[in-house]
Amino acid sequence: MPHFARPLMPLFLGLCFSLAALQAAAQTEWPKAKPVTLVVAFAPGASTDIVARSLTQKLSELTGGNFIVENKGGAGGNIASAQVKRAAPDGYTLLVHSVAFAVNPSLYADAGYDALKDFVPVALGPKTPNILTVNPSVAAKTLPELVESAKKTPLSYASSGIGTTTHLSMERLKSAAKVDIVHVPYQPAAAINAVVAGHTPMASTSMPPAVPMIKAGKLKALAVTSAARSPLLPDVPSITEFGYKEFDDYTWFGFFAPAGTPAAVVEKLNAALNRAMESTEVMDKFALLGMASTHNSTAEFSTFLRGEVPKWSAVVKSSGAKAD
Prior knowledge:
Blueprint: H1 9-27, E1 36-40, H2 47-63, E2 67-71, H3 78-86, E3 93-98, H4 100-107, E4 119-134, H5 143-152, E5 156-159, H6 165-177, E6 182-185, H7 188-196, E7 202-206, H8 207-215, E8 220-224, E9 250-258, H9 263-277, H10 280-288, H11 298-319
Parallel strand pairs: 1-2, 1-3, 5-6, 5-7
Antiparallel strand pairs: 3-9, 4-7, 4-8, 4-9
Helix pairs in contact: 2-9, 4-11
């Protein structure tokens, strides 16, 4: 061997070992090569986080892989979206987001992603009506009483963040009721706590963080934003019962992979997620929080998403909502 080649041998051998390792990893059937990270777009305790953590153990049981949660809150979920958009499209990094995923591209001047091009819709998770609640110290016992009170005395409400359906639903209500109630946006996990603590008298949130507080007597529920009452809180009226038409607003949750993720891996992910969400223990967890899911394919979720993006874009435009 020429003398000049000897110093290069360690480098050459290292490269060979690296290539062999990469080839072995590529041949390892998903999801056995390494942990699958569910990047949650919001902080711990938010509804999106609750959904992700309800599924990790079941997903591990069903696939034999290791599923972990990483919370990456900030910018209404855009930070998490940007992180997953840049991740390797190998099925080992998934984005867990809410309906804000479909809202943000029209809400922000630059959300940092295209909802229909930068991701593969893997599976639609559960959905939940939004709910209007007040601190027990608020005198109003019904939504009409609250509206009348707001016309006489300044009132504010907490939401799960600018541009969320909890915010946009309340803005629609304000427009229909011809009343001004000041919006105070919070991180999703903090909105309910703000009302319980009395920092704001009212909240518009999804049901999961609100239900335990309602049952504990720390909040009063005035209405849900779905067209029908929620089976979880059958005594709480639907907003349509008070004459507000065309309200059927939900917060939904979804699972997304970076664009370019192999179709075979996406199908395995979809199958595992559907089986996990159909398991008795997960269904029971969701039901306790007012959430429910239905079996759906990647194609069905894609079709659903293509309807949601323009729908919420129109609501953002009509409400004038802007995040920056």
